[in-house]
Amino acid sequence: MSDAANRTEPARLSRHLAALGFVLPALLIYGLFVLYPLLTSLWGSLFEWRGLRQLDFSWFDNYLRLLSFPNSEKLFGALWHNVAWFFGIMLFQNGFGLILAYLLFWSRKGASFFQSVFFFPAVLSPVIVGALWRLLLAPNGVVEWMLNGLGLHEGRLTVLGDSGWALWVLIAIDAWNWMGLPVLIFTAGLRQISYEVFEAAKLDGAGSTRMLTTVALPLLVPSISSVTTLSFINTFNQFDIVYVMQGVQGNPNFSTDTLVTYFYRLAFGAEGAVGITDIGLALALGTMLFLLLSVGTLLLLRAFDRATVQP
Are residues 207 and 264 in the same domain? Predict the structure, then answer.
């Protein structure tokens, strides 16, 4: 037995080394392009900066400046916009996505076609989507012409210049852009549920709405977990559509500003006087955003894991 064990040890070691050889390039790339910049940012946020030059160690001074007026006003304003964006996406994109997926699940004809139609906008870059909708919603644009023609609106369409409407218009556009993703995930989740479960609910007299709320939803918790977590991460990293449609200032009057656009202005000199950067504040904001996303994602995954129901 000892001789057999001695012969298997080199074979086992060679398999482990071969597996490490496959994983090592990915680990090196991850360490170089993710871990190293992250640790550098965390360390750099504890220093005073003048332009791009790192000066004295300042402990948490950058964080205190970020949380103090006037920086705090823009910080919490941008944070509120991200929070509103998240709940808007959960309602419009994921809520409607669940309903559409449920209808497609019970549809006997055309389900694959409509699923492809709903998913098509998701293959477009947010930059392209933002540029397209900016043209459509511009004064004298197609949407204005259609609304005036139908008698639903008169005069110039200025929703992108209205601080009360601009953020919600961008949320709706983002929801339209990614609607196909929750439809795809929820449809796949519904197909994992045994058909006998729905048949039993029908025999008990459950209608379509009741089957969705009392049968499908509890069994869709893993799918809801994936969609909610992805939505949380994406909404708090929102930049492309805001930048393309409203500029880096989050116009009008910062009403569409997000944490990432605020970070961009601090890091690349568009905050206050043009060309003046505040790397210390930018790194502090980046660190806070990283912690927010990490803690929020872990809490969401833990909450959904507890709520998971086995069919």
Answer: yes
